[in-house]
Amino acid sequence: MQVTNLTKIYGKKSVVDDVSFEIPKGKVTSMIGPNGAGKSTVLNMISRLIARDGGNVDFKGKDIAQWKSRELSKKLAILTQTNNISMKLTVKELVTFGRFPYSGSRVTQEDVKIIDEAIEYMELTEMENRFLDELSGGQRQRAYIAMVIAQDTEYILLDEPTNNLDIYHATNMMKIVRRLCDELGKTIVLVLHELNYAAFYSDYICAFSNGEIAKFGTVEEVMTKENLSEIYNVDFEVLEINGKPLSVYY
Amino acid sequence: MKASKSTFVLLILLILLSIMSLFVGVIDVSIFDVLKGDFQHLDIVLISRLPRLLAILCTGVGMSVAGLIMQQLCMNKFVAPSTGTTISSAQLGILLALLFMPNSTLVGRVIFSFVAAVAGTWIFVAFIQKIKFKDVVMVPLVGIMMGSVINGVTNYLAYKYGMLQALSSWLVGDFSLIIRGRYEIVFLVLPLVVIAFIFANHFNIVGMGEDFSKNLGINYNVVLFMGLSIAALITASVVVTVGSVPYLGLIIPNIVSIFKGDKIRGTLIDTALFGGVFVLACDIIGRIVNRPYELPINLVVGVIGSILFLGLLFYRLSPSARAKLSERTRKSKQNSIKEA
Fold first, then answer.
1. Do A160 and A234 share a domain, yes or no?
2. pLDDT at site B1
3. Per the domain annotation, does A175 fall within a domain?
4. Confidence band of B294 (pLDDT split at 50, 70, 90)
5. Domain housing A137
6. Which of A130, A152, A174 is the last residue before a domain boundary?
7. Could you tell me if A160 and A63 lie in one domain?
8. Does the distance separating the beta carbons of B326 and A69 come in below 8 Å?
9. A198 vs A193: CA distance, rounded Å
């Protein structure tokens, strides 16, 4: 996926200004940056959830707007935080929706197999008949990921998947993201607020600041004391733990 | 999809009540007379009792399914044709037909009321989508307020042009005036319910939110508008023939959802059957309690519906009751899976 000169304007202010980058295939890329830097807006634009005011998003040789929505949903999945969680659906019913782009309302034998595998992969088999509103935040998040797995797309975009999760569940979520990439070969892009999760679990980091890309590179390239201090306007120290650069801010 | 026990029980109940409904009335008609070929009694059944039964069933089924669709699409359990603006818009439509085309036939009134109901519902939903209320209670409150404004306009126009008398038959639901030849438009409910069943999964996905729908390649606005139009058309066909019957669209889907969840494919048939059973039971009670006079259906549905609605509010607001019921639902689901 190749993004060039992407722009979004709200009123007179451009919240995303002339952003260009390429998403590395088969890798985990984290988007970081202060609030209002435009990372979620970019994620929503490259996944066709919101319209853009300029630029191109080239996905597999075709602009994302040229894709039929149904076809695109077999290649690219996006998970945001704005889902209706009061709906009384069971885990299995939710995961079944992941097959909708392929089979519509008629679930085939193959779909059933894929759905069961996705549920098992997320270790939800025991609670597959429980309603979503009875699950903990971490379990519910896993159910949504299981749906995305059933959707069987090459690209998975996640908007703050660790939001509202405690340390245990957030860490688990990041491990799942890593496994999706390493074991299933998915290309993953996620918006994250926790820098150290980004540093520890991703391959590339795309740092936003004021609607522009401040730095884009491997974790080691981006996670330096100077870069982070500049992007966040806070004093940083970067330590090396287990061979990964981890940051401390104060 | 396999038919569950609840569906079976509701179906039996519906059939029993239907037979009962045919033979309750001012004139005693017994099943034996009809079978013996007593033409006078047969006529009563065909001209009055059967149409009444069918109108009741269509009303119960239609209003419940319309409520179910609206609740899902608006992501709010308290939105229904009565708490949205659908019923009041349909009534305004009928009045406009009476004003502008005084000689209009039933068809003319139906078309006016269809257009008004669909437009009113769209405006309401467009409004609540624009505002994006955080509080679940705000949405139905706004709906009730907008509905009252429309009702106010309707009443003012009716008063000004001396139409109050004529209008009252569409304001209050009444099955006693239903006879052959004057109610058949209500059958429109049936194909609409079938369409709703076919698109059940679309409605479910749209009910999960706009981002969620787009991710699965569904055109959110098209499905939303289609679903709302179906709900509005169902409501209008009922209002034109029977009048407005309150609470149905609100209570029936909620009760079924408590026990069976929100997957429309799994709940639509039960919701429709339960709606039919509920209205039939209320109608029979209304006919028996004060014989030979009839209690208006609105009164019976209102009394029983209010009590059920209060229970529903307590349920929705009390977490412990919810947990208990969910536990039971889950167990029964697991059991049915084991059996399968």
1. yes
2. 43
3. no
4. confident
5. 81-152
6. A152
7. yes
8. no
9. 8
| Residues of chain A that touch chain B, judged by Cβ-Cβ distance less than 8 Å | 47-49, 68-74, 77-80, 82-84, 86-90, 93, 97-98, 100-101, 104-105, 129-131, 134, 151
Strand, coil or helix: B101: coil
Residue A105 placed within a domain? yes
What is the model's pLDDT at position A114?
A: 95
> Do A41 and A109 have their domain in common?
no
Going by C-alpha positions, the residue among A84, A103, A56 that lies closest to residue B220 is A84
Residue A128 to residues A124, B133, B176, B304, Cα–Cα distance (Å): 6, 32, 49, 36
Q: Using a CB-CB distance cutoff of 8 angstroms, which residues of chain A are in contact with residue B329?
A: 131
Q: What is the mean pLDDT of residues B295-318?
A: 82
For B109, the enclosing helix (H) or strand (E) is: helix B106-131
Helices (H) then strands (E): counts for chain A: 10, 12
**Do A25 and A48 have their domain in common?**
yes
Q: Which pLDDT band, with edges at 50, 70 and 90, does A163 fall under?
A: confident
Its domain, for residue B89, covers 5-339
- Residue A176 placed within a domain: no
Do residue B262 and residue A134 have CB atoms under 8 angstroms apart? Answer: no
Residues of chain B positioned with their CB less than 8 A from the CB of A78: 211, 214-215
Closest partner residue to B326 (CB to CB) among A79, A86, A131 is: A131
Tokens of B334: 């697991």
Same domain, A58 and A12: yes
Mean per-residue pLDDT, B103-126:
89
Asked whether the beta carbons of B207 and B72 are under 8 A apart, the reply is yes
Q: Are residues A65 and A132 in the same domain?
A: no
Q: Name which of A156-165, B2-11, B107-116, B218-227 the model is least confident about.
A: B2-11
**The total number of structural domains that make up chain B:** 1
> Does one domain contain both A68 and A87?
no
Query: A interface mutation test: which of B79, B195, B215, B222 has the most A CBs within 10 A?
Result: B215
Q: What is the CATH number of the domain that holds A221?
A: 3.40.50.300
Name the band, by pLDDT with cuts 50, 70 and 90, for residue A85.
low
Task: Give chain A positions within 8 Å (CB) of B75.
Answer: 84, 86-87
> A40 and A159 in one domain?
yes
Given an 8 Å threshold on Cβ–Cβ distance, is A129 in contact with B214?
Answer: no
Q: What is the pLDDT of residues A2-57, one digit of tens each?
A: 898 888 988 888 889 889 999 999 999 999 999 888 899 999 999 999 999 988 89
What mean pLDDT value characterizes chain B? Answer: 85
Report the 10 Å Cβ neighbour count for B149: 12
| CA A217/CA A220 separation, integer angstroms | 8
CB contact (8 A) between residue B204 and residue A89: yes
pLDDT for the residue B329? 61
Look at residue A139 and tell me if it is in a domain.
yes
ipTM field: 0.89
Query: Is the pLDDT score of B2 beyond 60?
Result: no
Q: What is the mean pLDDT of chain A?
A: 90
B217 → closest Cβ in A49, A69, A88: A69
Residue A59, beta-bridge partner list: A62
How many domains, chain A?
2
Residue of chain A whose Cα is closest to the Cα of B201: A105
The span from the CA of B76 to the CA of A65, in Å, is 32
End-to-end Cα separation, chain B, in angstroms: 12
CA-based nearest distance B258→chain A, Å: 9
Output the domain CATH number for residue B280. Answer: 1.10.3470.10
Report residue A249's pLDDT band, with 50, 70 and 90 as the boundaries. confident
